[in-house]
Structures are given as structure tokens and as C-alpha cells.
What we know:
This protein has about 325 residues and is α/β, with parallel strands linked by helices. About 45% of the residues lie in helices and about 10% in strands. The chain has 13 helices and 16 strands.
Amino acid sequence: MRIRARVRQLPAHPRARALATQVWQRGPGTGTAPRVPSDEEESVRANPRPSADAVWEQLWDEAAYQFKTQNWKTGDLQEFGIDRYLHEKVLMHKTLACGLAAQIGNKLSANESAARTYPEKDAGVDFRAIMMSAFDADASICEKVAMDIARFKVVDPAVESLLGVYLNFKGLHAVAAQRVAHHFWTERGVAGKLISRMLQSETSDVYGVDIHPGVKLGVGITIDHATGVVIGETAELGDNVYLMHDVTLGATGTSGQQDRHPKIGSNVFLGAKCTVLGNITVGDGATVAAAALVNKAVPDGYTAVGVPARLIAPNSFSEPEGAKPVDIGKAK
């Protein structure tokens, strides 16, 4: 009786009625009572590398909780169509793979020029199908994206929920699209190269992030704000790398070698507007300060600041009295 009474407050749209019944039957908690974290949420918090299933369960529960608590209080979710939005982006999907393909693939397809020119003819590229094809062929792609989502909660104080990251953070969407593009670049031959280039182009256009399909990404990659990030073909990023907006990992333009882009270690922070050029290494735990220009290797744990960048040793190292920072722009 309780479920049916609640459903009567919804619009007569059959999908809205079905969604209300589904959410009230499955979601955690009841009514407006304080939300108790689910077992999946506790698992995500405790595990630095949660599974895609655990992350999706938490996302689904967060969306259901928003629907349950807010819909009956103010009606804002209905008035502005947010209830349908949550349904289409989260609640109607059973897996993270399906949700990501719809969330990102549909946005890329809507932006593709043929789709905008001939909307009535269904003429655009089906990026949703492209993404599902990659997820079906390599389940590890979604597992890596799940770790990317969870990592935001660890390192970004502005993150209140994984649902917000999944729905709204274009840095996450750009990284997920690149992971799919990398699969096509490395596993699908000549046709895959064409598809991956299309993914790169549309991702750059939609999200303002340009990551070459050939880039090798670790897990737990966080791109905060994301606008203006550019990463070249032979760059590599380790695990738990944090990038701010306008970061460039590029080539010097003077090397004739194929391998010409930086290699970034694990647990590295790259500040806003910093530039790292050439086939050099930024060691594990290093920091590149905002607006720094780095063209020489940065050892593990060091901080690079300035133009050209100079090195500041980590606090755990004892510096001789009067020692000066190393100018890595001139170091041999």
C-alpha cells in the first residue's frame, strides 16, 4: 500500500510509475530517514581498487536515494525532468558498462556532425555501440574506469558522491572514452585506428580534453576540471596520477624519435597549466607545480617549480646547509 500511495503522486507517465515502484522496492533506507551506507559503498570506501560491480551498486543506490528523498519533499526532480534523467543515466541500466556507453556514447553521437545535419535519418556514428563493443571485448576497461571513479572520492575534497562524478565530471568521461579508444587503437587493426581517431576527435570537441588513443594509462587517473588537457601519443601515466586543467604532456618538436612524450610515474600530481616536454621521466610521488615548464627528468618525490623548472627535494631528504635547488632546465 505504501508503494502504491507514493506512485499516485507521480505524473501519469508509465515509465515514471514503473521507476517509482522499482526505486521504492530496491533502494536503501525508507522515506526521508538518514541514509545508511550499503555494503557496496563500504566496500568501495575500504578498497582502493573496487570492482565495477561494487561501484555501480553504489551509484545506483545514490541515484535511488536522491529519487526517494527529494521527489516526495519538493517535486523538483519531476518539475525539471531530473527524475527521468536519473532513470536514463543510471536506474535503467544494470551494469557500469551499459551506463557508461549510454552516458558518454550518446553525448558523442549527438555531437557528431552527420547526426546534427540529418537528425531524422539516424545518420550519425553510433558511439554507444562502439563503447559497448570495447566493454564486451575487454572487461578490464570498465574495471579501470570504476577505479577512476572511486579515486575522485579519495583525492578531491569537492566530491560528495560517486553519482556526481559519474554524471557530471568531464575529466572522468574523457578518460573513459580514451580507454575505449586505446582498445581500438591497439586491438582492432586498421579499422580500429580510424574508430579510435574518431573517438579522440569527438571527445576533444565535447569535453575539451585531447588524449591520443596510443597513450597508456594506469588506474585511478583523476583529471580535475579537465579543460585544456593535452597528452601526446607515446606518453605513459602510472597509477593514481592527478592532473589539473591545462596540463600538456607533449613533445619538444625537435626529436626525430617515435617515442617522444613524457613517462609519468605513480602518485604524481601535475598542477594547472604545467607543461612537461620530451621523452623524460617524472618519478613516483613527484609534484609538478602550476605553470611549471619541465624538460628534464624529475626524480621520485621531488617537486618541479618555475620556468624552466628547478627541483626541490622532498622533506624526507636532508639538504646540506645552503644547498640550492637544482635547475632541471639546465641539468645534464
